[in-house]
Amino acid sequence: MTPILDRAAFIRAETRLLPVPLVPEIRLHLAHEATDLWQRTEDELGGIGLPPPFWAFAWAGGQALARFCLDRAELLAGRRVLDVASGSGLVAIAAARCGAASVEAAEIDDFAAEAIPLNAAANGVALRVRHEDLVGRDEGWDAVLAGDIFYDRDIAGRMEAWLHALARRGATVLIGDPGRSYLPVARLAEMASYCVPVTRSLEDAEIKLTRVWRFADQDPEPGSALARNLPNGD
């Protein structure tokens, strides 16, 4: 735990409540000066334990996944949903907006775990924050959502094995990703693609082509919501 700041006060002071570019019906506490906040956490605050502020940005994978879920709400309606590596809570909030029976947002970052309930409250939804590492566990979730998690080799390896196991036992596993280095594309099947506006100072472009994926061997039951939403009815 990082003990040195009032996290909620810090989040409110360093962000503005803004609509998400691809998902404007959702507002988040986002960094209004992206480079400044990132640099401060490295230079001024890094020495006292403040990690990079991943929670203060609407990353491309999360935006695409949130958009996909909202546009196909029947995939999550009435289901138990886990959003893993939730960051700002964007995807979890979208899941709650879809009418999920329950939504859990898993995060190990202290500030993200504080930002998620602030963002949920700003959007009038209820969800549960799981401030712990759930990778490797299976609590019977009906759907597991993962946005922008394949940017690190070690993290990607753990996530891929876990998510694939959940998909194989029948959970709906959806991944949002803009082509990060360690995305296991060979094992995935595309569900949708979007041109997502992003923060140029943190990415290599102002627009990122971002896809929503499922595992290719994740065979949905005939007539299920996932089966009805496969591209071209495949």
Describe this structure in words.
- The protein has 234 residues and is an alpha/beta fold.
- It has one domain: 3-Layer(aba) Sandwich (Rossmann fold).
- Helices cover 30% and strands 23% of the residues.
- It is built from 7 helices and 9 strands.
- The strands form 2 sheets. A 7-stranded mixed beta sheet has the order 5-4-3-6-7-9-8, sandwiched between helices. A two-stranded antiparallel sheet has the order 1-2.
- Strand 6, helix 6 and strand 7 form a beta-alpha-beta unit.
- Helix 3 runs parallel beside helix 4.
- The longest helix has 16 residues.
- The protein is globular and about 45 Å long.
- The model has no long low-confidence stretch (mean pLDDT 89).
What is shown here, in short?
The protein has 234 residues and is of the alpha/beta class. Helices cover 30% and strands 23% of the residues. The chain has a single domain, classed as 3-Layer(aba) Sandwich (Rossmann fold), CATH 3.40.50.
Write the layout of secondary structure elements.
Blueprint: H1 7-14, E1 15-19, E2 27-31, H2 34-43, H3 60-71, E3 80-84, H4 90-97, E4 102-106, H5 110-122, E5 128-130, E6 143-147, H6 153-168, E7 172-177, E8 188-197, E9 207-215, H7 225-228
Helix pairs in contact: 3-4
Structural class: alpha/beta
Terminus-to-terminus distance? 46 Å
Rounded mean pLDDT score: 89
**What does the largest sheet look like?**
7 strands, mixed
Number of helices, counting only DSSP H or I runs of 4 residues or more: 7
- Per CATH, the superfamily is Vaccinia Virus protein VP39
Q: What would the CATH topology be?
A: Rossmann fold
What is the C-level CATH assignment? Alpha Beta
Helix content: 25-40%
CATH architecture: 3-Layer(aba) Sandwich
Order of helices and strands: HEEHHEHEHEEHEEEH
The total count of strands amounts to 9
Ranges with pLDDT <50 over ≥5 residues?
none
Which outline best applies?
globular
Tell me the strand order in the biggest sheet. Answer: 5-4-3-6-7-9-8
